[in-house]
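Let us practice reading a record.
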Amino acid sequence: MKLKSTFIELIFYGVIFVSCLVSMDIAIRRYHFETQLKKVSLAMTDKSIDTLAKRSGIEKMRLLQRLRDEVGLKSVVVNEDTIGSLEKEGLLTLLNGSELKNLSRVSLSSSFLTNILKQSEMSSEHLFICTDEIEIFDRVRTILSIEFGNENIKQIGNQLMLDIIADKEDLANIGVGISKQKLETLKELGLNPMIKLQNSARVNEQLIKEKLDTFINDVPSPTLLFDGLSILGYPKHLKYLEEKIKDNGINIGLVEFSKPLGFDELSLPLSKKIIRIHAIGEQEVEKLTKEKVLARYERAIKERSIKVVLLQPFLQHPEEGSILDFNLNNFSTLKSNLSKTGFEVGHIAGIVTDYYLPVKNWESMVLSIGVLTTIIYLLNHFFPLSFTQFLGLTGIMSGLFWGVYALGGFFIWNKIMALFTAIVFPSLAIISQFPFEPISKKEEHPILNSLLFLLKTVGITLIGSFFIVGFLSHTRFIYGADQFTGIKLAFVIPIVLIGLYYYIMPHRLSSTIFVLKRFIQSPVQTVGLLSVMICLISIGITLIRSGNAASWMSLDIEDHFRFLLENFLLVRPRTKEFLIGYPFLLISYWYVNQGIHKRWAWFFLILGSLGLLSVVNSFCHIHTPIMVSMNRVLMGLILGVFMAFVYRLLIKIGAYLYQRLIK
């Protein structure tokens, strides 16, 4: 160690100990909270139910009854009606003036049309909406009057018919609220409607109110979803929508991997009202087997705190049986599997969070000081720090904390500290624990000590992981309204620090600039170039695949391998941990200075660091339950040790065969 004072070391260990106690207390509180969230709901969209009913040759009401009784369906997503959808359902007619005039020439009821012709201008600019249902007429007239202004909407006499000047395509796509008939039907069946509204280019507060009024008195504790690229009220009326949601006890549904514009801004102050939803698209589900679809639903619920699953039926005819029976059996299997793993399938009216205590101000302060001391401890491996510098940096950190907090930046500060934690702890784990001297000269039990080395590095990384859990323990992170920021930086910076430290080597850190200058000026060697390329490719793939958006990169053989792991293990460990990370850490320990020259330690330790960075990354996904992340780390560690010994055996076999060949 380069810290000169034992007293400073004692301060460091003391602060880390206290910070660990605080982070563990927060983690335990969150664990107890997560154990209460065992209820999930099965839902379907009204559109998919209609399609399945038509493909199965069964009445929609009968299908809904069977889904409710046999599958445990609790909710149905009801899309907002549009002029176009009402026309397709035969509930209204939309014609322009020219079409209406042409129709009058051949209509048997020409007296009615002639009457209309006398009261309206029959140009192509005029559009006419006609219906025979008063509820639909009143709803359409009210919404369109708000959209276009009362002066631009004209009722023709006493007829349920409107005259409006508008673009036909634009008019057909306008949302006109929720059908009360659909709501009443679902209520009679004991099913809960989940409401899906769309935004408008002419949105205003009155329009938001009218759309909400079409269902707010008919649906208790409704869940609101949003259709299209932006949420209702975006961009100028989100504050009003927020107030209406609070006043009317509305929950907001967050469909995984699908955040429309404005959702982040709306959800931050409403994080306790978020209900996480998982859905698979109609085209996507047809590319998967039923086993993979069920596994995906179950994984979303167990590993990502999903509370509602939107069931997507298979619409292609199965090899055996009917489409209906095939889908009902699949859905029933899902319900049974969830019940076996301790989940209760039922209706979710909201998430109770009153008893949950996220990180407090003083706890965040303690954790921040813990991160600061760790940063200093890490920096001390590069540049010796004095006791005065230590106290000075501590004071600066404390001042920054209260300054940012006073400015209302509590959550911003916690996110910054979480990022620093994700960078510092994996770096410190390797730099502080990797023995740079030949192990044969100082250890009698290299295998046992190598396992102890691995446990130490993972342990230090887990301490940092629990710090992150503490910093980001608010419900806004747990439910996905906010998230860990800087996931790519948390991968790259530790790799750079570890690579530089072991490329320059500890005894040459004081001559860092000279070493780097000599590296730049030296001729390129093939082995060195290949090593750098391997590291860059590995890091690049890891970065790209660190998000769910890169699922297109997975190969079929990899998907099958993951599927097997999920079937045989409690939680699927991450392949980069047990196939690359942990094995390369142990290989580094075993062979650096024992067959591998120490100047190549950087290469193996960079690859080994991927395992520790993956551990931190698991805990950065705050919506994942803590025990799931812990089980994933444990499974990865066990498999990683096993794979390391497999690699060790292969190395010995390869060395033996090589010796035989050269002889």
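A brief commentary: Residues 37-80+183-345 form a domain with the TIM Barrel fold (CATH 3.20.20.370).
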